[in-house]
Amino acid sequence: MLAISIWNYVESKKEFNHFFYLQAKLLIQKDIDFRKWNASHAGVYVPITKASKPNPYLKDFPERDIETKTGKKLTLVNSDYMVRQVNQKKSS
């Protein structure tokens, strides 16, 4: 009886660890997919807000900040900056 309990515990722990390994792998892959998507579009434009300020590393890029015909100000977010912003929000 004790041996069966120990075996069940060990097997349950293996399954538990495998489940969380797969979850971590999926989360990492999701981040990679978002980054690849953004990079494949050479970045995306988002409204300038307190949370999405212009990327200082793109200051020499002439089309970093644009304005729509209606006057809305947009800034370019490349894949690196996007990942940085997403991770900052996760840790806040």
Outline of the structure:
The chain is an alpha+beta fold and 92 residues long.
What's the pLDDT, averaged over the residues?
A: 91
User: What is the spatial order of strands in the main beta sheet?
Assistant: 1-3-2
Indicate the overall shape. rod-shaped
Largest sheet: 3 strands, antiparallel
Q: How many strands?
A: 3
The number of domains is: 1
Structural class: alpha+beta
The N- and C-terminal alpha carbons lie at a distance of 48 Å
Written as H for each helix and E for each strand, in order along the chain, the element string is HEEEH
- Poorly predicted runs are none
Your description of this structure?
With about 90 residues, the chain is α+β, with helices and mostly antiparallel strands. The protein has one domain. It is about 55% helix and about 15% strand. The protein has helices at about 1-40, 80-90; strands spanning about 45, 65, 75. Strands 1-3-2 form a 3-stranded antiparallel sheet. A hairpin with a 5-residue loop joins strand 2 (about 65) and strand 3. Helix 1 crosses helix 2. The radius of gyration is 22 Å and the shape is rod-shaped.
List the helices and strands and how they pair.
Blueprint: H1 2-40, E1 44-47, E2 65-67, E3 73-77, H2 79-91
Antiparallel strand pairs: 1-3, 2-3
Helix pairs in contact: 1-2
Keywords:
rod-shaped, alpha+beta, 3-stranded antiparallel β-sheet, 92 residues, single chain
